[in-house]
Amino acid sequence: MVRCLVSLCAREVVRNHSSSPSWLGWVPRELYRPLLEAAFASGRPLAVGELAQCWPERTLRVGGPKTKESISPNRLCVQALLLAVVRGLGDRRCVLQVLDLCGLHGDEGGTGDSMGGWSLTVAVCTMVVQAKAGVKRTQKKDGDRERKRFSALEREMDLKRERAQKKGSVEPNSGGTGFSGFVSEQDLTKGVRRRMETERKKRTGLEDSNTEEKEDNCDVLVHVRADLFVNARSWERVRVALTTSGPLKLQCRYLRVEEISVSSIRTLLSLLPRLGLLGVDIRYSSLGVAGLAELLPLLSSFPSLNSLRLHYCNLDFRRDQFGQEDALRSLSQGLASLQELRRLSLTALRLPGQLRVLLSSLPQPLEILELPYLSLSPSDLAYLSCSHHASALQQLDLSENRLDDSTLPSIRRLLSQASSSLQHLSLSGCGLTDSLLGLLLPSFGCCRALKSLALALNPLSMAGLLDLVQMAVRLPNLRQLLYPNPLEDYQPGLPDLPSSAQLLDWPLDESTDINVTSSQLNRVLLDSGRGDLILTCDLLNYDKDLVA
To answer: What element of type H or E holds 122?
Structure first.
C-alpha cells in the first residue's frame, strides 16, 4: 500500500517539469529511485536527465527481468539518461560508479517509440566515446588556463629582472670581482624559470613521452554494464568503445552477434573484459564446426560464462568430408573447457547422431537445453534420456524434431528423469498425433513442476485437445499451455499426417467458428477451477518467460 502511494505521488511530481528546480535539491536520496521509475513510466525524458545527472547512489540500475507488467523503454528517456550520465561526470552531487543497463532494451523494430537491443548498443558505445572526447575538451581548457597563468608569471618575472638591471648591478664587492650581484640575480632568474617550465609541462601534459601513458591510465569514474548486440553495422562502434580508455568503462553481460565472421567474433571476444560476461549468442554466422572449435578456447577464458546459444550457424556435419571427425573432437574438447556452462542452445545445426559427442564432455549438468530443428536421431534421444543432464533439466526444447513410435520410449524415460525439475517443455512441430499424445500424457502428468507446455503445430483433433487440457488442469504449477489448432478447423484437403510447415501455411476454414474451440477448452478450465491457467494457440505472441 505504501509503495503504491509513493509511486502515485512520484508520477505527480515528475509530471510538471517546471517545478523541478524547487524540489530537486531537497529530495531525500531514498526517493530518487521511485521518481526515476515514474519518469520512465510516464515518458518524461527531462525528469530522467535531471535525476540521473545528480544520482546520489553508487549504483544506478535500469531495466531488469521481463515481466507481464514491464514495458519497453522509451527511446527519448534512454537517450536522456545516457546524456545525463556524461554530464554527471562533472557534477559534484553525482556519486555514480556503476550504471547497469542489463535487460533494458525492448524488441528491435517493435511497436511504439521503444529502443531495441541494437539501438541501445550503438547509443551506449557512442556515450562511452563522447565521454572521452568531453574529458579531452576539459583538459584542453584547463591546459589553456594553466598556460595563461604561467605566461603572466613569466611576464612578471621579466619585469622584476629588468627593474633589477636598471637599479645598477655594477656594485663592486669585497673580493674585487665586479658584476657579481648581476650574475647572481641572473642565475636566480634562470633557476626560477626552469622550475616554472618543468611545472608547466607536468600540469598541461605537453611532454610527448607521457601523452599516451596518461591516456591509457585515465581514471575510470563509471563502469557501464549492458547487453551488447553486434552486427556488421555496429561492429566498428563497439570495437572503438571497448578500446577507448576514458571516464566510462564498457562491460558486457550478454553478447549477441549476428552475421559477422569468425575472425571478427574472435577480435570482439579478445576486447571484452574477462569478468562479468554470462552468455554468448551467435546467430546467422557461417562458423562451421572448425570455426566454432576455434572460438571455444576463447570462451573458456571467461570464468562466469554459463550460457552459449548458436542459431543457424551452419555446423553441417558430414562424415564423408575430410577433417570433420577431428574438428568434432576439438569441438567436444572445447565444450569441456566451459566449466560453468548451464545453458546450451543449438538451433538448426544439422548434427544428427552427434549429441553424445557434444554433451558427454560437459563437466556440469545442463539446466537449460534447447535443440530445435536439430534432426535428432533415435540414438540422440536415447543418450539424452540416460545422460547426467536429464535429472537437472529445467527447460527443454525439442521442437521440430520428428517423434514416432521408435523415439517415444526415450522421450518418456527423459520426462521421468526430469519430472521433479522440469519447468518449461516445448514439443511444438514434433508430429504428435492423437495416439502418440495419448501415450505421452501420463509422462506429462508426472512433471509436477511444469509451468509452461508448448505443443503447437502438431496434428491433433479436437478430441485429442480435450484430453490434453484435462491432463493440464491437474498440473498444479502449470500457467501456460500453447495448443495447436485442431484439424477440424482447417480447410479441406489437408493430408492425413500433415507436417508442421503444412499446418503453418494451410488456411483455416472460415466457415468454422474458431471461438467454439476456445469455448470448449475454457469450459474444462471453469469446471476444474483453474482460472490461473492460460490457454492460447497464438504461436507468435507466446512467451514462456512471462510465467512467474
So the answer is: helix 117-166
